[in-house]
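Summary of Year 1 activities. Much of the first year was spent building the evaluation harness for sequence design. The harness presents a backbone, in tokenized form, and records the residue chosen at every position. We chose the following record to illustrate the format because it has been used consistently in internal testing since the harness was completed.
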């Protein structure tokens, strides 16, 4: 990776964060040192910072009818084995839905039309196993959760994120792309808090680049997919998310480290019952492992989970395809945030899992 921002929080309720920026924004373009306020494409970390946070908010207000409510209970129609999928199994990747499909091939012109096409196509998918009987990580499931959040909370995802997450927490360097030139403006947030402002106002925070040669859609090497030249900074790297206008349930969010840190702090506050934006009951349920105890790959609700390197407790968080990672210990209050762009200048780069594992050991190994 060309560079990034690393932040680590100490392991007590009173601890603060230590933040360090390193390297350059890019190596073939934007060859400038990374600063602590650099904005990165979060990739699948979107799943917890936006989609899971929004479903938590809806659940906290009783809008879901319970996390075991099936999609059919919201008036959704389709084959019985898809509309019977529950919010809980979608959140924990236990729905049986496939991991990915090239939905960008469905066409459409407006985001509304494309969202409808995507939802219909996903609901036509046949789960690969009965829901609740196993775990299969699925972007498709989180796309459905994004559509559901829009219905339950009343608005498109980008507006919901500003209203339900960024506004209450005073975040000024986070939002869905595509970002206009200049990214997030320095000034005031949408909530009126001092700091930085909404995207697209110019003269703002630096946005790190991703791939120099991007696909029309699909993983690198997908048959028949041409290379169209560099992803503009502020355009989401994920092609299904880009096709949906930049905001989707599985990817699309951009953020600076300080804002990610603030969201993690709010979850820790809720877990301790000392603040936060949702109740302690709700965040505790979402931070509970799902599935049988002897099953590999158990997750929380929306959150990935891994054993702490120290052997004490479970960490919750998520990783992103662009190299990003967020992990925190609800019981011990320690946390780690890594923002980077390992897909620049190309996604054909390995070794990121080893880097993230080493950082986990650094933050949580003692």
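For this record, the design step produced the sequence shown next.
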């Amino acid at each position: 990776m060309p560079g990034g921002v690393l932040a680590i929080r100490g392991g007590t309720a009173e601890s603060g964060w230590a933040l360090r920026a390193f390297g350059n924004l890019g190596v073939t373009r934007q060859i400038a040192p990374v600063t602590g306020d650099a904005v990165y494409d979060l990739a699948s970390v979107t799943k917890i910072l936006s989609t899971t946070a929004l479903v938590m908010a809806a659940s906290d207000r009783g809008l879901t009818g319970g996390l075991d409510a099936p999609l059919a209970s919201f008036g959704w129609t389709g084959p019985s084995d898809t509309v019977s999928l529950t919010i809980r199994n979608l959140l924990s990747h236990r729905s049986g839905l496939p991991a990915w499909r090239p939905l960008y091939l469905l066409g459409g012109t407006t985001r509304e039309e494309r969202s409808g096409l995507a939802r219909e196509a996903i609901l036509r998918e046949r789960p690969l196993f009965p829901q609740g009987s196993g775990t299969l990580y699925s972007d498709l499931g989180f796309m459905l959760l994004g559509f559901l959040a829009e219905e339950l909370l009343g608005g498109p995802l980008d507006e919901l994120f500003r209203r339900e997450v960024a506004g209450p927490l005073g975040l000024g360097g986070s939002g869905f792309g595509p970002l206009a030139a200049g990214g997030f403006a320095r000034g005031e947030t949408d909530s009126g808090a001092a700091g930085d402002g909404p995207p697209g106002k110019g003269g703002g925070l630096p946005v790190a680049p991703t791939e120099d040669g991007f696909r029309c859609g699909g993983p690198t090497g997908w048959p028949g997919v041409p290379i169209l030249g560099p992803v503009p900074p502020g355009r989401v790297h994920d092609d299904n998310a880009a096709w949906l206008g930049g905001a989707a349930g599985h990817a699309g969010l951009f953020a600076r480290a300080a804002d990610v840190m603030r969201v993690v702090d709010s979850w820790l506050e809720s877990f301790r019952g000392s603040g936060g934006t949702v109740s302690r009951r709700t965040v505790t349920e979402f931070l509970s492992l799902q599935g049988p105890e002897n099953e590999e790959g158990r997750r929380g609700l929306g959150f990935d989970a891994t054993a702490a390197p120290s052997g004490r407790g479970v960490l919750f968080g998520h990783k992103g395809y662009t190299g990003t990672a967020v992990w925190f210990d609800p019981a011990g209050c320690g946390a780690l945030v890594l923002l980077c762009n390992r897909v620049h200048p190309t996604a054909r780069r390995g070794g990121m899992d080893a880097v993230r594992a080493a950082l986990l050991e650094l933050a949580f190994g003692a």
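The first strand starts at residue 3 and ends at 9. Quantitative recovery figures across the full test set are reported in Table 2.
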